[in-house]
Amino acid sequence: MIPDVLIIGGGVVGAACALDLAEAGCRVHLLEAEGLGGGATAAAMGHLVALDGSPAELDLCRLGVERWKALAPRLGTALEFDPCGTLWVARDDEELALVRPRCEAYQVAGISAEMIDARHLHEVESCLAPHLAGGMRVPGDAVIYPPAGARLLSEAAHRAGARIETGTPVATLEPGGVRLMDGTRIAAGAVVLAAGSASREFLRHLPLVKRKGHLAITDRHPGFLRHQLVELGYLKSAHGSDADSVAFNLQPRPNGQLLLGSSRQFGDDSPELRPALLRRMIHRALDYVPGLAELNVIRCWTGFRPTTPDHRPLIGPMPGRPGLFLACGHEGLGITTAPATAALLTAQILGRSLPLDPAPFLPSRFSELAHA
Amino acid sequence: MAEGLLVIGAGPAGLAAALAASDAGMAVTLVDAQPEPGGQIWRGQWSGEARGAARAIFADLRRSAVTLRLERRVIAAPKPGCISVCGPSGPEQLPYDRLVLATGARERFLPFPGWTLPGVLGAGGLQALVKDGLDVRGRRVVVGGSGPLLLAVAAHLRAKGAHVLAVAEQAPRHALWGLAPELLRRPRLLTQGLGFLGLPLRHDAWVTRAEGDAQLRRIHFRTPSGTQVVEADLLAVGFGLISNLELPMLLGCACEGGRVTIDAAQRTSLPHVFAAGEPTGVGGVEKALAEGRVAGLMAAGREAEAARFAPEAERGRAWARALETAFAQRPELRELPEPSTILCRCEDVPVGEVQSLERGRDARLHARCGMGRCQGRTCGPAAEFLFGWAPGGPRLPLVPTTFADLVGGLSDPEQP
Prior knowledge:
The structure holds 2 protein chains of 2 kinds. By secondary structure, chain A is an alpha/beta fold.
């Protein structure tokens, strides 16, 4: 039987789920408390990146990037899909030594990756500092504009029959449905919680914490950069548990703007900029791309990403709550993996064959949820 | 002992604050983005010929111990008691014990078809260009929009040889009668008004369209007797002034109704931070001078002396409120833009791309409205008027700043 599905959250993950579920024949109703793509989606850089924190993560990324490529022509130019590829940059020989096994791991996973030596690094990206040791190019990676992603996926879902409602906050989850802030009860065969960091407002014991990030964007410098640049040490920052960390990540936007990240902070729930951390993030970037120093920054901002203890998202049925499914906790990979999350969750809800191994993402992997 | 006053803005309010505090023995640093003190209103009078109140104030400033830090724009407030500025010699951090915010005002623009054509300028913007030497002799000019600035600009343009075809004031004549009681208390303004005699002022009149290919050629404006079309070279248009609240908001000063919230002694909601002049309500030079004097004296701890000037500052604020009521934008102005009319000039966002959106954040995220170089300083107030969207809060850096300067501006000498 095909259930009616209610999705809480109109970020990129909720919107991707709405599209897949609607196309699978479900009657879908998406409820977004504010505007589409305004939460963690707006705090993301929009990098569609194959990240190999674990084989499971790499698999989810691979499916995500593949599906984005298929979706991009359908969603239109407002998505700002740019197949710029990723250039992972090694600071020194120690980092460069990690590139060969990494390339091999990518190839095993079916993702094209090539090693770049120091000599060729500047041919690939001339703005890089001369002291860098080399890198790894992943030509299949790309970039999108995340808020547009959430909006365009929602619009596609709407065309497929989904009802998309913004400015409609949900108050509580109830057996067989939800209750809105205004008291209205909506029944559904399945409820998908895709509210990012706000998911904890509905399920207090979810193992989710907000991880704060800083971003900065420049005015327009077309041609300054061709690839998305990421330092090879990025995983250490992204998957580490340091209170504060920064990692170099620079992205060309289609209009010539450059978007700079990244920082990670636990335990800071204020949206205020932290000057010391922002300074560290910029210093880090100048180590890799000295020419940035003379470019104008027009805006810096912060956002929050929902993070789980093992840095993998929560995708699948919520133990002990029949009809409730989770699609949250994607941290920095929500944009890349949104369509993969949607494919997996749709198969789980409808009992169809799964596109990848669900176990690493099941909420029940956390003991506090398994015994809920 | 109180010492270390930082004044942001060297227009009348900032100058009055700096001089009052300096006279009271405080060490004062006065910062402005322009190369000369005087603000917009006394532009060019520091190096040129100073007139009226400016003459005495500039003379006092030259004799004073005030430290001038010109050509410096505020970029950030990295920690309490410190403002980062950026100037020709790079970023600097200016510590303070007391702070006076005299950040002035800017023009309000409302979009209408053709408002981005070359030849269409802000009313205050054109006046500034003329003060800086632009030759307008023989040029056919229409001045339009709203507020007392229009007549002052028209008179100035006429004095510089321009042919002022019309001054289109959108406010109805009867609304301006509401100003009469306040005007009678301000004989200086009445005298100034004599300078406006003979200007082709039309009330209840507003520009509806500017036309031309690469350059302004024709202006349509609505008057009570119907639409008129005139051939013109320049259109100077501005719908009053709006307070510059970016720095007060960045610092966390309470603001309401487009103004910094202050008490009778110019104190903001933050300790040791005062505001004076246009940020507390757009009311012109006399209000700015009175408020600046009160703020400077308060910062210097001369509360009793400050209290003597407080009533004049309060009269200035009453005048500002009366002006705001009299020159309120009429609702018909919301109907002017067409779907193709540009709303955000930095990002080329037309009105039609955002008018169906629910909230300002949607417009910023999904249409990049207000996300360009000026960070919504121009289109934010227009969108607020057209759609009721609250402008986004200020973001660091307050003006475009290089990464190198931003790092310098954010550095903490105590924590290298």
